[in-house]
């Protein structure tokens, strides 16, 4: 700072600047001025453009998390549920249901599968997500919810399933964008889907189990976790140009 002040004096600049009768060292303003381009780049630069942010959230920040350090802020959970219900759904019937598990139901999970009791206890929040599949109708109608599902996976039911999967992914991406980890669990719960539906009083004739979603602050930042390799990448017939 002495060197900066000496330079200011030798160039006939004041060593302090008065703002609202408060004296600030001129060197502070010089320092701010020198990092201004960097700050501007950070704000306007490509690294913070929406597409770059979305890509980072999708490919780096969202990872399946098993170990948690604590509960997610309630505001992040609410945002994620709002993101979930904005998923595309062909029949505009919002076929998803999110059951947030309270302490009693959480305790039941451990009773039903004692082998996983400890692992379950480490998870700060859990949601059981179900889909309410609808019947395909002969006539094309948007009011599919009026006809009760008969348990068959027709066109509408499959599309409801797809929409609910999109809702879950929206939820997990929203959580990731707020530094919250999640994990979609099915078989590894070691509890049958019918029992999980029963735990949340969901009628298996009306609802299909989609998964249990673990939620919480990750013990390790997700962007430093190992990415399970996408073996096929964009090659291997995954993406092909079809004329
Ligand atoms: C429908 C579905 C069910 C899943 N069920 C399980 C599960 O039962 N146990 C588990 O360890 N992971 C489960 N996962 C998470 C995957 O194992 C995980 O997404 C995969 O290893 C890729 O890792 P990433 O999510 O970090 O990219 C499930 C994922 C999906 C989409």
UniProtKB/TrEMBL annotation:
<dbReference type="Pfam" id="PF00881">
    <property type="entry name" value="Nitroreductase"/>
</dbReference>
<dbReference type="InterPro" id="IPR052530">
    <property type="entry name" value="NAD(P)H_nitroreductase"/>
</dbReference>
<feature type="domain" description="Nitroreductase">
    <location>
        <begin position="159"/>
        <end position="216"/>
    </location>
</feature>
<dbReference type="InterPro" id="IPR029479">
    <property type="entry name" value="Nitroreductase"/>
</dbReference>
<dbReference type="InterPro" id="IPR000415">
    <property type="entry name" value="Nitroreductase-like"/>
</dbReference>
<protein>
    <recommendedName>
        <fullName>Nitroreductase domain-containing protein</fullName>
    </recommendedName>
</protein>
<dbReference type="GO" id="GO:0016491">
    <property type="term" value="F:oxidoreductase activity"/>
</dbReference>
């Amino acid at each position: 700072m002495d060197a900066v002040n000496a330079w200011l004096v030798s160039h006939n600049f004041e060593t302090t600047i008065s703002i609202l009768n408060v004296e600030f060292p001129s060197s502070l303003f010089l320092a701010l001025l020198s990092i201004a381009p960097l700050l501007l780049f950070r704000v306007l630069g490509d690294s913070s453009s929406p597409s770059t942010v979305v890509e980072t959230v999708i490919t780096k920040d969202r990872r399946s998390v098993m170990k948690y350090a604590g509960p997610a802020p309630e505001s992040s959970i609410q945002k994620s549920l709002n993101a979930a219900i904005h998923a595309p759904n062909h029949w505009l019937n919002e076929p998803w249901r999110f059951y947030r598990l309270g302490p009693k139901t959480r305790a039941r999970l451990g009773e039903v599968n004692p082998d996983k009791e400890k692992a379950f206890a480490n998870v700060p929040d859990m949601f059981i997500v179900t889909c309410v599949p609808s019947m395909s109708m002969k006539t094309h109608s948007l009011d599919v919810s009026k006809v009760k599902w008969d348990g068959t996976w027709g066109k509408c039911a499959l599309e409801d399933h797809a929409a609910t999967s999109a809702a879950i992914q929206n939820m997990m991406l929203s959580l990731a964008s707020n530094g919250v980890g999640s994990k979609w669990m099915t078989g590894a719960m070691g509890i049958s889907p019918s029992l999980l539906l029963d735990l949340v009083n969901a009628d298996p004739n009306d609802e299909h189990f989609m998964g249990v979603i673990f939620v919480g602050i990750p013990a390790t930042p997700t962007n430093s976790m190992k990415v399970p390799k996408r073996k096929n990448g964009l090659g291997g017939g995954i993406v092909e140009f079809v004329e």
